[in-house]
Write a structure and sequence with these properties.
Radius of gyration: 22 Å
Number of domains: 2
Order of helices and strands: HHEEEEEEEEEEHEEEHEEEHEEE
CATH class of the largest domain: Mainly Beta
Helix content: under 10%
Number of strands: 19
Distance between the termini: 37 Å
CATH topology of the largest domain: Immunoglobulin-like
Bound molecules: calcium ion
Length: about 350
């Protein structure tokens, strides 16, 4: 960018983008605390502050008291020069060991931005909340065996990730107003899944134990038993920060009901990358989905050879045409309590 020239010709769309970054808090990026097994003692996350505009930006931050996380500072102020970025390590003490067995604790950061718009020359102050929390980072290994996309998971050596809780039960910690629906536990519905790759495909194997498989071709896909997969293969930081915008374009979305047989038609509301293979088949314990996404799609979204992706898996559980519930791995990316970076897989 050439200073002075660029600013005179700045477009309305660019103004809107700058304004949004200070009003919506996207000028602030906080990396989640990634853990594999357990996290305790002093842990450090990375914060990044971006001023996209032609005037200085002031960001003030303070933290809500928390019995688990104790930040090294109760509050801080960052002053950013025009068109500048600052990165800061930020240390937090975890006052008790944290695992991913239960829903991870959250440290809430209140932020305030002060900015003078170059368009209107007015001063603006905005406020909002960001979350610092714990997210998992999983390995996506190369498959040691050949995967056949036929709805039979016998060749899968392990399905290490399990979901067995209604999403409302996990999110009640953030929003006490949320009431979980009646979920019958693992006997009623339980999901296990894995992600592996080879030269051609990223494979997802998803096993659903369901004591009553309910499908009705007349109903919309998620108003019956269904698997929902969302995959973001873009590079950082957009992958971790995204709130699920662009489902079916930026984000690959697969919503599929169990089929009676391989001949039964599959309905997926979103366009899938060319060459995607998808089967979701009933079996004696419920149903199983097997998905192969071409590596060429991951490379294209990544802008180079793929290194990582972000995944969320959910299952819609219905026993009949009445109310169903949803088992969800991580909070829905589209909601305010989405955890940045949750469900990140690293290619191994
Ligand atoms: Ca198979
Ligand atoms: Ca069911």
């Amino acid at each position: 960018m050439i200073d002075g020239i660029e600013d005179e010709n700045i477009t309305t769309a660019e103004h809107a983008k700058i304004f949004e970054s200070v009003s919506q808090g996207t000028a602030i990026y906080i990396e989640p605390l990634y853990i594999e097994q357990e996290l305790k003692g002093e842990v450090t996350t990375k914060m990044q502050f971006i001023n996209r505009g032609a005037n200085p930006l002031i960001i003030r931050a303070s933290f809500e008291l928390n019995e688990v996380f104790k930040p090294v500072l109760d509050s801080f102020v960052v002053s950013l020069l025009p068109h500048s970025t600052q990165s800061l390590p930020f240390t937090i003490t975890a006052q008790k060991p944290i695992t991913l067995d239960e829903y991870p604790p959250i440290l809430k950061m209140q932020w305030e931005t002060e900015y003078t718009s170059e368009k209107t020359a007015k001063d603006y102050t905005f406020k909002g909340t960001k979350q610092i929390t714990v997210a998992s980072r999983h390995n996506c290994p190369r498959t040691p065996v050949e995967i056949t996309v036929d709805g039979n998971l016998e060749e899968w050596q392990t399905l290490p990730i399990t979901i067995e809780q209604d999403w409302r039960a996990t999110q009640k910690r953030i929003n006490p107003q949320i009431e979980p629906k009646t979920y019958g536990g693992a006997e009623d519905c339980k999901v296990s899944f894995a992600a592996v790759y080879d030269e051609q495909y990223l494979y997802l194997g998803i096993a659903v134990v369901d004591n009553k498989v309910y499908v009705d071709p007349e109903r919309i896909v998620h108003q019956q038993d269904a698997v929902e997969v969302r995959l973001d293969a873009r590079p950082e930081p957009i992958r971790s920060l995204s709130h699920g915008e662009g489902q079916g374009t930026w984000i690959l979305a697969i919503l599929v009901n169990p089929q009676e047989s391989l001949e039964t038609e599959i309905k997926n509301p979103y366009i899938l990358p060319a060459g995607t293979k998808l089967v979701c088949l009933k079996n004696s314990t419920g149903y199983a989905a097997e998905i192969a996404i071409p590596v060429s799609y991951l490379n294209k979204m990544h802008g180079k050879e793929w290194e990582a992706f972000r995944l969320n898996v959910a299952v819609d559980e219905f026993d009949d045409e009445g109310n169903g519930l949803q088992l969800q791995w991580w909070p829905d990316w589209r909601r305010e309590y989405s955890i940045p970076g949750s469900g990140t897989f690293i290619r191994k």
